[in-house]
Hints:
2 helices; 108 residues; 21% strand; alpha+beta
Amino acid sequence: MADNQQNINIKIPDDVLKGTYANNMFASHTKEEFVLDFINITFFPPPGQGIAVAKIVTNPGHFKRMVMALNENLKKYEEQFGKIEGNNPQAPITPSSSSGQDFGFSTK
Length: 108
């Protein structure tokens, strides 16, 4: 271990340990902070209903380290399991029902 690193014991509460499912995310920022709102959108009646399941607020330096770690993990995932198809971030996500309502990312 490098001299500038230390061991930190981390307690994970039971409600955090079980995890939370999210299938959408909204990101925003100010000069001082990045805000990530994780959303679970259901496709069952009523279609397109969503609920925020978590909000993460962090500083720009840590956000950049998070993005780098996510990119590294995505690269390892795709090397192991193959390229993830349909990863166009501008494509809207639409429910399989015939509701006719689009939701997700908009290119307008």
